[in-house]
Amino acid sequence: MTFFDQFLHVSPTGFRKILFVNWPLVVLLSAVSSIGFLMLYSVAGGTFQPWAQPQMIRFAAGIFILFTVAFIHVRFWRSITPFIYVGAVLLLVAVDVMGSIGMGAQRWINLGFVRLQPSELAKIAVVLALAMYYDWLSPEKVSRPFWVILPLILTLIPAGLTFVQPDLGTSLLILASGGVIMFLAGVSIWYFIAAIVSVVGVVSAVLVSWGTSWQLLKDYQYRRIEIFLNPELDPLGSGYHISQSKIALGSGGFNGRGFMEGTQTRLNFLPEKHTDFIFTTLAEEFGYVGTSFLLLLYALIIAFCVHAMLINRDRFGALLIGGVAATFFFYFAINMGMVMGLLPVVGVPLPLVSYGGSAMMVLLGAFGLVQSAHIHRPRG
Fold it and tell me: Domain boundaries in the chain?
């Protein structure tokens, strides 16, 4: 065995770790974020304020967090996972007591220098907790009923606390990501069939409770469902977002209207154009070509994560990578489905593109965990 072969078969230490970074993944994350900067510059009318410049600063901070997390051994992150999970749950409880209200929901804790959204941290905390649990649990026990209960509890606690803020989109995202990790860990498919049946039952209960004294959702959430089914019921009210979003999506055509030439954005017909509905701005200005390019970048990020998961022989690291990839996928899938009218409006931003500090930095920190698992994976 040559010296180079020996070098490749040992866990890297010190500055050598930089050679083992998944650089294509870093480039792809930077490319997606750059599209976000471009769109934020456009929706602000050709200025870096008030959105593009702060987002660039947050991205720089997020990249610093990514590499800091990446160069710390993944086993360290496993060892402090219980503290991260408990901390995230306590923050979710705190947001109900002292949280700031915005967009009809109490989701933020104002720390002075930044507004922290604990539900963003909860997504990654659940991924870490479940990856640690299944790393500890022997594979032959994963499908036994007793050992399925604990991961369900670990997932349902933050999902439930997020749901009561109310933040339906994020709670569904936490549940979906938790389900993916359980599937990757080898939990029997029959549990998932039972879960699907249960979801159908819950949806039925939600619809039956509509308009009663015990209705399960807030009035505005029921209104979203109603408008989702028929946006024309209130085109100038609750259906305005979806109606204007569809107009912007359709007007872009194949090549788009051109950079900063979107009428829906420039004339302020499109609400939340810098956050949840920024994808429609991209579609109007760059058309099918621009949106397909963004989708390609997202697909490549998922592909590199899947490859890193498959070659990782450490169970914790592999499940961690798979969980982050699943969370990222549900992020953009829910947002795109929402703005295209395929899903109800649930307030999920477009990852790395929509304006927002907590979401970007937590997500880049999560990809730092992916890099840590990749760099420190067993070799030889």
Answer: 16-375
